[in-house]
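Hi C.,

You asked whether I'd gotten around to modeling the 56-residue construct. I have! Everything is below, sequence then structure, no commentary in between.
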Amino acid sequence: MFKKKIEMIEGDYYKTEEGYIVFTEQYLLRRGYCCKNGCKHCPYGYDPKTDRLKKR
């Protein structure tokens, strides 16, 4: 299964002082699914302790 490539737009990510790229909620919502990697700004409510998404 191939994922569709999403063009990056302003506000999709920022870089930390250490140089890491952090995706924003804006990008994660545009992407349209939860990757279950415990993203800092996950809008899907993924809980890595239970491996579940919050019910909407």
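If it helps when you're writing up: Residues 23 and 39 are 8 Å apart (CA to CA).

Thanks,
B.
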